[in-house]
Design a protein that fits this description.
The structure is a homodimer. Chain A contains 13 helices and 9 strands. The first copy, chain A, is of the alpha/beta class. Chain A folds into 2 domains: about 160 residues, 3-Layer(aba) Sandwich (Rossmann fold), CATH 3.40.50.720; about 120 residues, N-(1-d-carboxylethyl)-l-norvaline Dehydrogenase, domain 2 (Orthogonal Bundle), CATH 1.10.1040.10. The longest helix of chain A has 29 residues. The N and C termini of chain A lie far apart (about 55 Å).
Chain lengths: ~300, ~300
Protein backbone atom coordinates (compact mmCIF):
# COMPACT_ATOMS: atom_id res chain seq x y z
CA UNK A 1 0.00 0.00 0.00
CA UNK A 2 2.89 2.35 0.63
CA UNK A 3 3.67 2.31 -3.05
CA UNK A 4 0.17 3.45 -4.05
CA UNK A 5 0.34 6.96 -5.46
CA UNK A 6 -2.48 9.42 -5.94
CA UNK A 7 -2.81 12.53 -8.09
CA UNK A 8 -5.46 15.13 -7.33
CA UNK A 9 -6.22 17.80 -9.92
CA UNK A 10 -8.20 20.71 -8.54
CA UNK A 11 -7.39 21.76 -4.98
CA UNK A 12 -10.46 23.76 -4.03
CA UNK A 13 -12.26 23.05 -0.77
CA UNK A 14 -13.19 19.54 -1.89
CA UNK A 15 -9.99 18.63 -3.75
CA UNK A 16 -7.68 19.85 -1.00
CA UNK A 17 -9.65 17.81 1.53
CA UNK A 18 -9.34 14.74 -0.70
CA UNK A 19 -5.59 15.28 -1.12
CA UNK A 20 -5.09 15.70 2.60
CA UNK A 21 -7.18 12.61 3.39
CA UNK A 22 -5.04 10.69 0.90
CA UNK A 23 -1.84 11.90 2.58
CA UNK A 24 -3.23 11.03 6.01
CA UNK A 25 -3.89 7.49 4.79
CA UNK A 26 -0.23 7.14 3.88
CA UNK A 27 -0.67 7.38 0.11
CA UNK A 28 1.91 9.27 -1.91
CA UNK A 29 -0.01 12.33 -3.07
CA UNK A 30 0.62 14.92 -5.77
CA UNK A 31 -1.66 17.91 -6.31
CA UNK A 32 -2.27 20.31 -9.17
CA UNK A 33 -4.02 23.67 -9.16
CA UNK A 34 -3.74 27.03 -10.88
CA UNK A 35 -3.63 28.84 -7.54
CA UNK A 36 -0.26 29.06 -5.80
CA UNK A 37 -1.80 29.17 -2.31
CA UNK A 38 -3.54 25.82 -2.87
CA UNK A 39 -0.23 24.20 -3.80
CA UNK A 40 1.45 25.71 -0.75
CA UNK A 41 -1.33 24.43 1.52
CA UNK A 42 -0.79 20.92 0.19
CA UNK A 43 3.02 21.17 0.45
CA UNK A 44 2.67 22.18 4.10
CA UNK A 45 0.99 18.82 4.73
CA UNK A 46 3.73 16.89 2.91
CA UNK A 47 2.21 16.64 -0.57
CA UNK A 48 4.04 17.18 -3.84
CA UNK A 49 2.78 19.71 -6.33
CA UNK A 50 2.90 20.04 -10.11
CA UNK A 51 1.87 22.70 -12.56
CA UNK A 52 0.38 20.67 -15.40
CA UNK A 53 -2.14 17.81 -15.45
CA UNK A 54 0.27 15.69 -17.51
CA UNK A 55 3.12 16.10 -15.05
CA UNK A 56 0.79 15.46 -12.12
CA UNK A 57 -0.58 12.28 -13.63
CA UNK A 58 2.73 10.74 -14.60
CA UNK A 59 3.34 7.53 -12.72
CA UNK A 60 0.28 7.72 -10.44
CA UNK A 61 -2.01 4.77 -9.72
CA UNK A 62 -5.18 6.81 -9.26
CA UNK A 63 -6.10 10.28 -10.53
CA UNK A 64 -8.95 12.20 -8.90
CA UNK A 65 -10.33 15.09 -10.96
CA UNK A 66 -11.98 17.48 -8.51
CA UNK A 67 -12.86 20.43 -10.73
CA UNK A 68 -16.05 22.43 -11.17
CA UNK A 69 -17.65 21.11 -14.33
CA UNK A 70 -17.51 19.03 -17.51
CA UNK A 71 -15.48 21.60 -19.48
CA UNK A 72 -12.72 21.62 -16.89
CA UNK A 73 -12.79 17.81 -16.66
CA UNK A 74 -12.40 17.63 -20.45
CA UNK A 75 -9.53 20.10 -20.37
CA UNK A 76 -7.70 18.32 -17.54
CA UNK A 77 -7.84 15.01 -19.39
CA UNK A 78 -7.60 15.94 -23.05
CA UNK A 79 -6.49 19.59 -23.24
CA UNK A 80 -2.93 20.89 -23.66
CA UNK A 81 -0.65 19.03 -21.22
CA UNK A 82 -3.66 16.82 -20.48
CA UNK A 83 -3.47 13.94 -18.04
CA UNK A 84 -4.95 11.15 -20.19
CA UNK A 85 -1.91 10.58 -22.38
CA UNK A 86 0.47 10.78 -19.39
CA UNK A 87 -1.21 8.11 -17.28
CA UNK A 88 0.27 4.60 -17.23
CA UNK A 89 -1.87 1.83 -18.71
CA UNK A 90 -4.27 0.42 -16.10
CA UNK A 91 -4.34 3.53 -13.93
CA UNK A 92 -7.79 4.59 -12.70
CA UNK A 93 -9.38 8.02 -13.17
CA UNK A 94 -12.05 9.21 -10.72
CA UNK A 95 -14.31 11.90 -12.19
CA UNK A 96 -15.56 13.76 -9.10
CA UNK A 97 -17.19 16.85 -10.65
CA UNK A 98 -20.95 17.05 -11.13
CA UNK A 99 -21.32 16.52 -14.88
CA UNK A 100 -24.06 15.42 -17.29
CA UNK A 101 -24.44 11.63 -17.23
CA UNK A 102 -23.91 11.51 -21.00
CA UNK A 103 -20.57 13.28 -20.57
CA UNK A 104 -19.49 10.72 -17.96
CA UNK A 105 -20.39 7.89 -20.36
CA UNK A 106 -18.38 9.54 -23.13
CA UNK A 107 -15.31 10.07 -20.94
CA UNK A 108 -15.48 6.44 -19.86
CA UNK A 109 -15.44 5.26 -23.47
CA UNK A 110 -12.54 7.50 -24.44
CA UNK A 111 -10.41 6.45 -21.45
CA UNK A 112 -11.17 2.78 -22.05
CA UNK A 113 -9.78 3.13 -25.57
CA UNK A 114 -6.55 4.44 -24.04
CA UNK A 115 -6.24 1.40 -21.78
CA UNK A 116 -7.31 3.34 -18.70
CA UNK A 117 -9.96 2.61 -16.06
CA UNK A 118 -12.70 5.12 -15.24
CA UNK A 119 -14.86 5.51 -12.19
CA UNK A 120 -17.79 7.92 -12.56
CA UNK A 121 -17.49 9.16 -8.97
CA UNK A 122 -19.26 12.41 -8.06
CA UNK A 123 -18.87 13.32 -4.41
CA UNK A 124 -21.20 14.72 -1.76
CA UNK A 125 -20.77 15.96 1.77
CA UNK A 126 -19.15 19.39 1.65
CA UNK A 127 -15.75 20.72 2.64
CA UNK A 128 -15.85 19.53 6.26
CA UNK A 129 -16.44 15.90 5.30
CA UNK A 130 -13.90 16.14 2.49
CA UNK A 131 -11.27 17.26 5.00
CA UNK A 132 -12.23 14.43 7.35
CA UNK A 133 -12.06 11.73 4.68
CA UNK A 134 -15.78 11.08 5.16
CA UNK A 135 -17.28 11.91 1.79
CA UNK A 136 -20.15 10.10 0.13
CA UNK A 137 -19.22 8.88 -3.33
CA UNK A 138 -21.95 8.04 -5.87
CA UNK A 139 -19.92 5.74 -8.06
CA UNK A 140 -20.32 3.53 -11.10
CA UNK A 141 -17.82 1.71 -13.26
CA UNK A 142 -16.31 -1.71 -13.93
CA UNK A 143 -15.30 -3.94 -11.04
CA UNK A 144 -11.71 -3.44 -12.21
CA UNK A 145 -12.10 0.31 -11.79
CA UNK A 146 -13.58 -0.08 -8.30
CA UNK A 147 -10.75 -2.43 -7.30
CA UNK A 148 -8.06 -0.11 -8.66
CA UNK A 149 -9.60 2.89 -6.88
CA UNK A 150 -10.15 1.12 -3.55
CA UNK A 151 -7.12 2.51 -1.63
CA UNK A 152 -8.12 6.06 -2.56
CA UNK A 153 -11.83 5.46 -1.88
CA UNK A 154 -10.99 4.04 1.54
CA UNK A 155 -8.95 7.16 2.28
CA UNK A 156 -11.55 9.77 1.28
CA UNK A 157 -15.01 8.28 1.77
CA UNK A 158 -17.26 7.22 4.62
CA UNK A 159 -19.72 5.74 2.13
CA UNK A 160 -19.24 4.50 -1.43
CA UNK A 161 -22.57 3.92 -3.15
CA UNK A 162 -21.82 1.35 -5.86
CA UNK A 163 -24.47 2.19 -8.43
CA UNK A 164 -23.61 -0.01 -11.38
CA UNK A 165 -21.00 -1.15 -13.84
CA UNK A 166 -21.41 1.67 -16.36
CA UNK A 167 -20.09 5.23 -16.12
CA UNK A 168 -23.06 7.62 -16.06
CA UNK A 169 -25.02 5.88 -13.31
CA UNK A 170 -23.04 7.69 -10.60
CA UNK A 171 -23.58 11.02 -12.30
CA UNK A 172 -27.29 10.27 -12.73
CA UNK A 173 -27.71 9.71 -9.00
CA UNK A 174 -25.71 12.87 -8.27
CA UNK A 175 -28.00 14.73 -10.66
CA UNK A 176 -31.08 13.51 -8.75
CA UNK A 177 -29.44 14.62 -5.50
CA UNK A 178 -28.55 18.05 -6.88
CA UNK A 179 -32.08 18.43 -8.23
CA UNK A 180 -33.46 18.00 -4.72
CA UNK A 181 -30.68 19.98 -3.03
CA UNK A 182 -31.17 22.97 -5.32
CA UNK A 183 -34.96 22.93 -5.09
CA UNK A 184 -34.77 22.61 -1.31
CA UNK A 185 -32.41 25.59 -0.95
CA UNK A 186 -34.59 27.83 -3.09
CA UNK A 187 -37.77 26.56 -1.39
CA UNK A 188 -36.22 27.16 2.04
CA UNK A 189 -35.56 30.77 1.11
CA UNK A 190 -38.99 31.21 -0.46
CA UNK A 191 -40.74 29.89 2.65
CA UNK A 192 -38.50 31.76 5.08
CA UNK A 193 -39.02 34.99 3.15
CA UNK A 194 -42.80 34.44 3.15
CA UNK A 195 -42.69 33.90 6.90
CA UNK A 196 -40.75 37.13 7.41
CA UNK A 197 -43.09 38.99 5.04
CA UNK A 198 -46.03 37.67 7.07
CA UNK A 199 -44.60 38.93 10.36
CA UNK A 200 -42.83 35.90 11.77
CA UNK A 201 -39.45 36.06 13.47
CA UNK A 202 -36.84 34.34 11.28
CA UNK A 203 -35.23 32.53 14.22
CA UNK A 204 -38.60 31.16 15.30
CA UNK A 205 -39.27 29.92 11.78
CA UNK A 206 -35.98 28.01 11.92
CA UNK A 207 -36.73 26.56 15.35
CA UNK A 208 -40.22 25.36 14.43
CA UNK A 209 -39.61 24.12 10.89
CA UNK A 210 -36.51 22.11 11.82
CA UNK A 211 -38.79 20.18 14.19
CA UNK A 212 -41.65 19.82 11.71
CA UNK A 213 -42.59 17.94 8.56
CA UNK A 214 -41.41 20.87 6.42
CA UNK A 215 -37.78 20.26 7.29
CA UNK A 216 -35.06 19.35 4.82
CA UNK A 217 -31.32 18.76 5.11
CA UNK A 218 -30.78 21.97 3.17
CA UNK A 219 -33.23 24.05 5.23
CA UNK A 220 -31.40 23.04 8.38
CA UNK A 221 -27.97 23.65 6.82
CA UNK A 222 -28.52 26.86 4.84
CA UNK A 223 -31.07 28.94 6.79
CA UNK A 224 -28.47 29.63 9.55
CA UNK A 225 -26.39 31.43 6.90
CA UNK A 226 -29.29 33.86 6.50
CA UNK A 227 -29.88 34.17 10.25
CA UNK A 228 -26.18 35.04 10.66
CA UNK A 229 -26.20 37.31 7.58
CA UNK A 230 -23.17 35.30 6.44
CA UNK A 231 -23.04 34.81 2.67
CA UNK A 232 -19.38 33.76 2.45
CA UNK A 233 -19.55 30.95 -0.11
CA UNK A 234 -19.43 27.41 1.24
CA UNK A 235 -21.13 26.52 -2.03
CA UNK A 236 -21.91 29.33 -4.45
CA UNK A 237 -25.03 30.41 -6.32
CA UNK A 238 -23.18 29.65 -9.57
CA UNK A 239 -22.90 25.96 -8.63
CA UNK A 240 -26.66 25.55 -8.65
CA UNK A 241 -27.05 27.67 -11.76
CA UNK A 242 -24.86 24.99 -13.35
CA UNK A 243 -26.20 21.88 -11.58
CA UNK A 244 -29.90 22.60 -12.04
CA UNK A 245 -29.01 23.42 -15.66
CA UNK A 246 -27.62 19.88 -15.97
CA UNK A 247 -30.84 18.49 -14.48
CA UNK A 248 -33.03 20.49 -16.86
CA UNK A 249 -30.92 19.55 -19.87
CA UNK A 250 -31.32 15.89 -18.93
CA UNK A 251 -35.08 16.36 -18.68
CA UNK A 252 -35.13 18.19 -22.01
CA UNK A 253 -33.05 15.45 -23.60
CA UNK A 254 -35.61 12.82 -22.67
CA UNK A 255 -38.84 14.86 -23.04
CA UNK A 256 -39.35 14.80 -19.30
CA UNK A 257 -41.00 17.89 -17.73
CA UNK A 258 -39.47 19.21 -14.50
CA UNK A 259 -41.53 22.30 -13.63
CA UNK A 260 -40.45 22.64 -10.00
CA UNK A 261 -36.75 22.31 -10.85
CA UNK A 262 -37.25 24.88 -13.60
CA UNK A 263 -38.83 27.36 -11.16
CA UNK A 264 -35.96 26.90 -8.70
CA UNK A 265 -33.39 27.31 -11.48
CA UNK A 266 -34.96 30.64 -12.42
CA UNK A 267 -34.45 31.87 -8.85
CA UNK A 268 -30.74 30.95 -8.92
CA UNK A 269 -30.45 32.62 -12.32
CA UNK A 270 -32.09 35.73 -10.88
CA UNK A 271 -29.57 35.74 -8.02
CA UNK A 272 -26.72 35.40 -10.52
CA UNK A 273 -28.26 38.19 -12.59
CA UNK A 274 -28.23 40.37 -9.47
CA UNK A 275 -24.47 39.83 -9.28
CA UNK A 276 -24.62 37.28 -6.46
CA UNK A 277 -23.16 34.33 -8.37
CA UNK A 278 -20.08 34.03 -6.16
CA UNK A 279 -21.99 34.40 -2.89
CA UNK A 280 -23.19 31.46 -0.83
CA UNK A 281 -26.21 29.75 -2.38
CA UNK A 282 -28.32 30.89 0.59
CA UNK A 283 -28.12 34.34 -1.02
CA UNK A 284 -31.01 33.30 -3.25
CA UNK A 285 -33.05 34.73 -0.36
CA UNK A 286 -31.97 38.16 -1.62
CA UNK A 287 -34.07 37.65 -4.75
CA UNK A 288 -37.12 37.43 -2.50
CA UNK A 289 -35.89 40.41 -0.52
CA UNK A 290 -35.54 42.51 -3.67
CA UNK A 291 -38.88 41.49 -5.15
CA UNK A 292 -40.85 41.29 -1.93
CA UNK A 293 -39.48 44.08 0.22
CA UNK A 294 -38.49 42.25 3.39
CA UNK A 295 -35.89 43.02 6.03
CA UNK A 296 -33.35 40.26 6.56
CA UNK A 297 -31.12 39.61 9.57
CA UNK A 298 -28.11 41.93 9.37
CA UNK A 299 -29.93 44.63 7.39
CA UNK A 300 -30.29 46.85 10.45
CA UNK A 301 -26.56 46.88 11.05
CA UNK A 302 -25.64 47.82 7.50
CA UNK B 1 -58.56 18.35 36.63
CA UNK B 2 -61.19 15.61 36.67
CA UNK B 3 -63.87 18.21 36.14
CA UNK B 4 -62.19 19.56 32.96
CA UNK B 5 -64.32 18.70 29.94
CA UNK B 6 -63.30 18.66 26.31
CA UNK B 7 -65.33 18.75 23.10
CA UNK B 8 -63.79 17.63 19.80
CA UNK B 9 -65.62 18.44 16.57
CA UNK B 10 -64.32 16.47 13.61
CA UNK B 11 -63.27 12.88 14.31
CA UNK B 12 -61.10 12.10 11.30
CA UNK B 13 -57.65 10.59 11.78
CA UNK B 14 -56.41 13.69 13.60
CA UNK B 15 -59.55 14.52 15.58
CA UNK B 16 -60.14 10.97 16.76
CA UNK B 17 -56.53 10.79 17.96
CA UNK B 18 -56.99 14.06 19.83
CA UNK B 19 -60.23 12.83 21.43
CA UNK B 20 -58.63 9.56 22.49
CA UNK B 21 -55.58 11.35 23.91
CA UNK B 22 -57.94 13.58 25.85
CA UNK B 23 -59.79 10.57 27.25
CA UNK B 24 -56.51 8.86 28.14
CA UNK B 25 -55.50 11.94 30.13
CA UNK B 26 -58.65 11.60 32.22
CA UNK B 27 -60.54 14.51 30.68
CA UNK B 28 -64.28 14.15 30.10
CA UNK B 29 -64.52 14.04 26.31
CA UNK B 30 -67.39 14.51 23.89
CA UNK B 31 -67.00 14.06 20.13
CA UNK B 32 -69.00 15.17 17.12
CA UNK B 33 -68.80 13.93 13.54
CA UNK B 34 -71.14 13.33 10.62
CA UNK B 35 -69.94 9.73 10.27
CA UNK B 36 -71.53 7.13 12.51
CA UNK B 37 -68.44 4.90 12.59
CA UNK B 38 -66.33 7.74 14.01
CA UNK B 39 -68.79 8.23 16.87
CA UNK B 40 -68.83 4.50 17.56
CA UNK B 41 -65.03 4.40 17.64
CA UNK B 42 -64.99 7.15 20.26
CA UNK B 43 -67.77 5.54 22.28
CA UNK B 44 -65.79 2.28 22.37
CA UNK B 45 -63.05 4.19 24.19
CA UNK B 46 -65.47 5.73 26.71
CA UNK B 47 -66.22 9.03 25.00
CA UNK B 48 -69.64 10.67 24.66
CA UNK B 49 -70.96 11.61 21.27
CA UNK B 50 -73.32 14.29 20.00
CA UNK B 51 -74.85 15.09 16.64
CA UNK B 52 -74.64 18.87 16.53
CA UNK B 53 -71.81 21.31 17.27
CA UNK B 54 -74.07 23.25 19.66
CA UNK B 55 -74.95 20.18 21.68
CA UNK B 56 -71.31 19.04 21.72
CA UNK B 57 -70.05 22.39 22.94
CA UNK B 58 -72.59 22.86 25.72
CA UNK B 59 -70.87 22.95 29.09
CA UNK B 60 -67.36 22.13 27.86
CA UNK B 61 -64.22 23.95 29.03
CA UNK B 62 -62.28 23.55 25.81
CA UNK B 63 -63.49 22.96 22.24
CA UNK B 64 -61.08 21.61 19.61
CA UNK B 65 -62.20 22.10 16.01
CA UNK B 66 -60.39 19.47 13.94
CA UNK B 67 -61.99 19.87 10.53
CA UNK B 68 -60.53 20.21 7.04
CA UNK B 69 -60.66 23.90 6.23
CA UNK B 70 -61.86 27.41 6.97
CA UNK B 71 -65.37 26.87 5.58
CA UNK B 72 -65.96 23.92 7.90
CA UNK B 73 -64.51 25.83 10.85
CA UNK B 74 -66.89 28.72 10.10
CA UNK B 75 -69.84 26.34 9.87
CA UNK B 76 -68.99 24.52 13.10
CA UNK B 77 -68.83 27.77 15.02
CA UNK B 78 -71.41 30.01 13.37
CA UNK B 79 -73.58 27.80 11.14
CA UNK B 80 -76.93 26.21 12.04
CA UNK B 81 -76.62 24.58 15.48
CA UNK B 82 -73.18 26.24 15.68
CA UNK B 83 -70.97 25.86 18.72
CA UNK B 84 -70.13 29.52 19.39
CA UNK B 85 -73.47 30.49 20.91
CA UNK B 86 -73.63 27.29 22.99
CA UNK B 87 -70.25 27.68 24.72
CA UNK B 88 -70.16 29.04 28.26
CA UNK B 89 -68.44 32.42 28.73
CA UNK B 90 -64.68 31.97 29.22
CA UNK B 91 -64.45 28.64 27.42
CA UNK B 92 -61.52 28.27 25.00
CA UNK B 93 -61.77 27.30 21.34
CA UNK B 94 -58.78 25.67 19.61
CA UNK B 95 -58.82 26.13 15.84
CA UNK B 96 -56.76 23.15 14.59
CA UNK B 97 -57.47 23.21 10.84
CA UNK B 98 -54.98 24.75 8.41
CA UNK B 99 -56.67 28.05 7.51
CA UNK B 100 -55.61 31.43 6.10
CA UNK B 101 -54.00 33.57 8.81
CA UNK B 102 -56.51 36.35 8.10
CA UNK B 103 -59.36 33.93 8.76
CA UNK B 104 -57.81 32.95 12.10
CA UNK B 105 -57.56 36.63 13.07
CA UNK B 106 -61.20 37.19 12.13
CA UNK B 107 -62.43 34.18 14.10
CA UNK B 108 -60.45 35.37 17.12
CA UNK B 109 -62.13 38.77 17.01
CA UNK B 110 -65.63 37.32 16.64
CA UNK B 111 -65.16 34.88 19.53
CA UNK B 112 -63.70 37.59 21.75
CA UNK B 113 -66.86 39.64 21.24
CA UNK B 114 -68.86 36.68 22.51
CA UNK B 115 -66.76 36.47 25.69
CA UNK B 116 -64.87 33.41 24.50
CA UNK B 117 -61.15 32.66 24.32
CA UNK B 118 -59.47 31.59 21.08
CA UNK B 119 -56.25 29.75 20.44
CA UNK B 120 -55.07 29.73 16.82
CA UNK B 121 -53.68 26.20 17.06
CA UNK B 122 -52.95 24.33 13.84
CA UNK B 123 -51.48 20.90 14.41
CA UNK B 124 -48.70 18.89 12.78
CA UNK B 125 -47.44 15.35 13.10
CA UNK B 126 -49.87 13.02 11.36
CA UNK B 127 -52.33 10.42 12.57
CA UNK B 128 -49.79 8.31 14.49
CA UNK B 129 -48.67 11.21 16.66
CA UNK B 130 -52.24 12.39 17.10
CA UNK B 131 -53.17 8.96 18.48
CA UNK B 132 -50.15 9.00 20.78
CA UNK B 133 -50.88 12.47 22.18
CA UNK B 134 -47.61 13.71 20.69
CA UNK B 135 -48.68 16.36 18.21
CA UNK B 136 -46.84 19.58 17.49
CA UNK B 137 -49.09 22.60 17.95
CA UNK B 138 -48.20 25.92 16.30
CA UNK B 139 -50.18 28.17 18.60
CA UNK B 140 -50.85 31.84 19.17
CA UNK B 141 -53.33 33.66 21.35
CA UNK B 142 -53.71 35.49 24.64
CA UNK B 143 -52.06 34.15 27.78
CA UNK B 144 -55.59 33.57 29.11
CA UNK B 145 -56.32 31.34 26.10
CA UNK B 146 -53.10 29.36 26.61
CA UNK B 147 -53.87 28.93 30.30
CA UNK B 148 -57.42 27.81 29.65
CA UNK B 149 -56.28 25.33 26.99
CA UNK B 150 -53.38 23.91 29.00
CA UNK B 151 -55.02 20.66 30.23
CA UNK B 152 -56.02 19.79 26.66
CA UNK B 153 -52.65 20.83 25.19
CA UNK B 154 -50.87 18.70 27.77
CA UNK B 155 -53.02 15.75 26.75
CA UNK B 156 -52.53 15.98 22.99
CA UNK B 157 -49.14 17.58 22.30
CA UNK B 158 -45.47 16.72 22.67
CA UNK B 159 -44.55 20.27 21.69
CA UNK B 160 -46.52 23.51 21.87
CA UNK B 161 -44.81 26.28 19.92
CA UNK B 162 -46.03 29.51 21.55
CA UNK B 163 -45.78 31.93 18.64
CA UNK B 164 -47.35 35.09 19.96
CA UNK B 165 -50.32 36.71 21.60
CA UNK B 166 -52.41 37.27 18.46
CA UNK B 167 -54.47 34.72 16.53
CA UNK B 168 -53.00 34.38 13.02
CA UNK B 169 -49.39 33.86 14.06
CA UNK B 170 -49.95 30.13 14.58
CA UNK B 171 -51.64 29.81 11.21
CA UNK B 172 -48.85 31.80 9.56
CA UNK B 173 -46.22 29.38 10.83
CA UNK B 174 -48.38 26.44 9.75
CA UNK B 175 -48.65 28.04 6.32
CA UNK B 176 -44.84 28.26 6.08
CA UNK B 177 -44.60 24.61 7.10
CA UNK B 178 -47.21 23.52 4.56
CA UNK B 179 -45.46 25.55 1.87
CA UNK B 180 -42.29 23.53 2.44
CA UNK B 181 -44.09 20.24 2.99
CA UNK B 182 -46.03 20.55 -0.26
CA UNK B 183 -43.04 21.66 -2.31
CA UNK B 184 -40.94 18.85 -0.85
CA UNK B 185 -43.52 16.17 -1.70
CA UNK B 186 -43.84 17.35 -5.29
CA UNK B 187 -40.05 17.80 -5.61
CA UNK B 188 -39.48 14.31 -4.19
CA UNK B 189 -41.74 12.86 -6.87
CA UNK B 190 -40.18 14.98 -9.63
CA UNK B 191 -36.66 13.90 -8.68
CA UNK B 192 -37.60 10.25 -8.13
CA UNK B 193 -39.39 10.18 -11.48
CA UNK B 194 -36.37 11.75 -13.21
CA UNK B 195 -34.13 9.12 -11.64
CA UNK B 196 -36.40 6.32 -12.87
CA UNK B 197 -36.61 7.92 -16.32
CA UNK B 198 -32.81 8.07 -16.37
CA UNK B 199 -32.43 4.38 -15.59
CA UNK B 200 -31.94 4.32 -11.82
CA UNK B 201 -33.57 1.79 -9.54
CA UNK B 202 -36.19 3.51 -7.37
CA UNK B 203 -35.13 1.70 -4.22
CA UNK B 204 -31.52 2.74 -4.75
CA UNK B 205 -32.60 6.36 -5.21
CA UNK B 206 -34.36 6.16 -1.84
CA UNK B 207 -31.34 4.57 -0.13
CA UNK B 208 -28.83 7.09 -1.46
CA UNK B 209 -30.89 10.28 -1.18
CA UNK B 210 -32.02 9.61 2.39
CA UNK B 211 -28.29 9.59 3.28
CA UNK B 212 -27.42 12.67 1.22
CA UNK B 213 -27.87 16.43 1.20
CA UNK B 214 -30.95 16.09 -1.02
CA UNK B 215 -32.99 14.53 1.78
CA UNK B 216 -36.14 15.99 3.29
CA UNK B 217 -38.57 14.84 5.95
CA UNK B 218 -41.17 14.41 3.22
CA UNK B 219 -38.85 12.54 0.82
CA UNK B 220 -38.12 10.03 3.57
CA UNK B 221 -41.78 9.76 4.58
CA UNK B 222 -43.58 9.71 1.21
CA UNK B 223 -41.26 7.94 -1.27
CA UNK B 224 -41.87 4.58 0.49
CA UNK B 225 -45.55 4.93 -0.49
CA UNK B 226 -44.42 4.91 -4.13
CA UNK B 227 -41.96 2.06 -3.60
CA UNK B 228 -44.79 0.03 -2.06
CA UNK B 229 -47.30 1.17 -4.71
CA UNK B 230 -49.55 2.11 -1.81
CA UNK B 231 -51.61 5.23 -2.43
CA UNK B 232 -54.14 4.75 0.37
CA UNK B 233 -54.50 8.29 1.69
CA UNK B 234 -52.64 9.13 4.89
CA UNK B 235 -52.92 12.71 3.65
CA UNK B 236 -54.65 13.32 0.34
CA UNK B 237 -53.71 15.23 -2.81
CA UNK B 238 -56.71 17.51 -2.11
CA UNK B 239 -55.13 18.68 1.15
CA UNK B 240 -52.17 20.20 -0.67
CA UNK B 241 -54.38 21.57 -3.43
CA UNK B 242 -56.01 23.49 -0.58
CA UNK B 243 -52.95 24.28 1.57
CA UNK B 244 -50.67 25.49 -1.22
CA UNK B 245 -53.66 27.53 -2.39
CA UNK B 246 -53.70 29.20 1.03
CA UNK B 247 -49.97 29.91 0.71
CA UNK B 248 -50.33 31.40 -2.77
CA UNK B 249 -53.33 33.51 -1.71
CA UNK B 250 -51.24 34.91 1.14
CA UNK B 251 -48.44 35.74 -1.28
CA UNK B 252 -50.91 37.32 -3.69
CA UNK B 253 -52.45 39.33 -0.87
CA UNK B 254 -49.10 40.90 0.00
CA UNK B 255 -47.57 41.18 -3.52
CA UNK B 256 -45.04 38.49 -2.66
CA UNK B 257 -43.98 36.17 -5.52
CA UNK B 258 -43.73 32.44 -4.73
CA UNK B 259 -42.74 30.79 -8.02
CA UNK B 260 -41.60 27.44 -6.61
CA UNK B 261 -44.74 27.04 -4.52
CA UNK B 262 -46.80 27.95 -7.59
CA UNK B 263 -45.07 25.25 -9.67
CA UNK B 264 -45.67 22.65 -6.97
CA UNK B 265 -49.33 23.69 -6.65
CA UNK B 266 -49.81 23.14 -10.39
CA UNK B 267 -48.59 19.55 -10.00
CA UNK B 268 -51.10 18.85 -7.21
CA UNK B 269 -53.81 20.48 -9.32
CA UNK B 270 -52.79 18.25 -12.23
CA UNK B 271 -53.07 15.20 -9.97
CA UNK B 272 -56.52 16.34 -8.82
CA UNK B 273 -57.46 16.94 -12.45
CA UNK B 274 -56.47 13.34 -13.22
CA UNK B 275 -59.01 12.21 -10.61
CA UNK B 276 -56.45 11.47 -7.91
CA UNK B 277 -57.62 14.05 -5.37
CA UNK B 278 -58.59 11.46 -2.77
CA UNK B 279 -55.42 9.39 -3.17
CA UNK B 280 -52.36 9.82 -0.97
CA UNK B 281 -50.38 12.95 -1.81
CA UNK B 282 -47.51 10.75 -3.02
CA UNK B 283 -49.73 10.04 -6.03
CA UNK B 284 -48.48 13.32 -7.53
CA UNK B 285 -45.79 11.00 -8.94
CA UNK B 286 -48.48 9.74 -11.33
CA UNK B 287 -48.50 13.14 -13.04
CA UNK B 288 -44.86 12.56 -13.94
CA UNK B 289 -45.67 9.02 -14.97
CA UNK B 290 -48.43 10.18 -17.29
CA UNK B 291 -46.41 13.01 -18.84
CA UNK B 292 -43.02 11.30 -18.85
CA UNK B 293 -43.78 7.68 -19.59
CA UNK B 294 -42.10 5.89 -16.72
CA UNK B 295 -42.82 2.56 -15.06
CA UNK B 296 -43.51 2.79 -11.33
CA UNK B 297 -43.26 0.07 -8.69
CA UNK B 298 -46.43 -2.04 -8.84
CA UNK B 299 -47.07 -1.37 -12.53
CA UNK B 300 -45.81 -4.80 -13.56
CA UNK B 301 -48.31 -6.55 -11.34
CA UNK B 302 -51.31 -4.62 -12.57
Amino acid sequence: MQSFSVAVIGLGAMGLGIARSSLRAGLGTTGCDLREEALEALAADGGRSCRSPAETATGCDALAIVVVNAAQTESVLFGPDGAASALRKGAVVLGCATVPPAFARDIGQRLTKLGLLYLDAPISGGAVKAAAGELSVMASGSSEAFTAARPLLDAIAATVHELGTEPGQGSTMKMVNQCLAGVHIAAAMEALALGIRSGLNANRVFDVITHSAGNSWMFENRVPHVLNADYAPRSAIDIFVKDLGIVLDAGHGSDFPLPITAAAHQQFLAAAGMGLGREDDAAVVKVYQTLGGITLPGDDGE
